[in-house]
Amino acid sequence: MTDTERAQRYEQLKAEIFAVVEGETYLPARLATTSCLLAEAFRPRFFWTGFYVVDPEKPKELVVGPYTGTLGCLRIPFGRGVCGACAETGETQLVPDVHAFPGHIACDSRTNSEIVVPVRWPDGTLAAVLDIDSTEADAFDDIDKAGLEAICNGLLAN
Ligand code: SME
Questions:
Q1: When comparing pLDDT for 107 and 61, which is higher?
Q2: Residue 66 C-alpha to ligand 1 middle, in angstroms?
Q3: What is the CATH number for 17?
Q4: Mean pLDDT confidence for 68-83
Q5: How many domains does the chain have?
Q6: Closest to 83 in 3D by CA, of 39, 58, 117, 34
Q7: What is the distance in A from the centroid of ligand 1 to the CA of 136?
Q8: Contact 80/61 with Cβ under 8 angstroms?
Q9: Alpha helices in the chain (DSSP H)
Q10: Residue 95 CB coordination number (10 Å)
Q11: DSSP sequence for 69-96
Q12: Is 54 helix (H, G, I), strand (E, B) or coil?
């Protein structure tokens, strides 16, 4: 797949995901749909594709949500590992080598690179993070970042 084709694929996926979840009020249904469609589209590069949701009872803790992949750890405090860094800073984390990332949480030792993108409620507060892991080193680039951010930015809007 060329870079242009990959960017177009993200555009198609965004339209498809938003169409499927339109009007849906149950958050896990939106997240499960997104996880499924992204994982299917970019298999096998996407080895683990899913969400860690902000726990409403512990606002500085993430708890695992819908995902596609091998067993994920259940809880991640803000500030810990790549997901925790994304939750703490509110910024996408693009990590070419997870073994060089301080505090990386190895839920599956086969993971070598990852990208984590924030998902916000319409009022701007953090709802969840989208975590995508790959067994390939340096599997993600700015096309993935832009495509995934566009999806996450609109995911809770309609
Ligand atoms: N890689 C993550 C932990 C979650 S699992 O890989 C599914 C991290 O360090 O934040």
A1: 61
A2: 14
A3: 3.30.450.40
A4: 97
A5: 1
A6: 117
A7: 15
A8: no
A9: 3-21, 27-41, 81-89, 142-154
A10: 22
A11: SSPPPSEEETTSHHHHHHHHH-S-EEES
A12: strand
- The protein residue whose alpha carbon is closest to atom 3 in ligand 1 is 105
Average pLDDT over residues 79-103: 96
In the chain, what percentage of residues exceed pLDDT 70? 100
Look up the domain containing 108 and give its range: 3-154
Atom of ligand 1 nearest to the CA of 133: 6
Compute the distance from residue 154 Cα to the ligand 1 centre, in Å: 23
Nearest-atom index, ligand 1, CA of 104? 9
Residue 126: strand pairing partners: 120
- Ligand 1 pocket test, pick from 133, 134, 140 with the greatest ligand atom count within 8 Å of Cβ, gives 133
Residue 112: CB within 6 Å of ligand 1?
Answer: no
pLDDT digits (tens, 9 = 90+) for 2-57: 999 999 999 999 999 999 999 999 999 999 999 999 999 999 999 999 999 999 99
Residue 45 identity = R
- Confidence at residue 106, expressed as pLDDT on a 0 to 100 scale: 87
**What is the reported pTM?**
0.97
Q: Are 52 and 62 in contact (CB under 8 A)?
A: yes
Q: Are strands 126-134 and 113-120 parallel, antiparallel or unpaired?
A: antiparallel
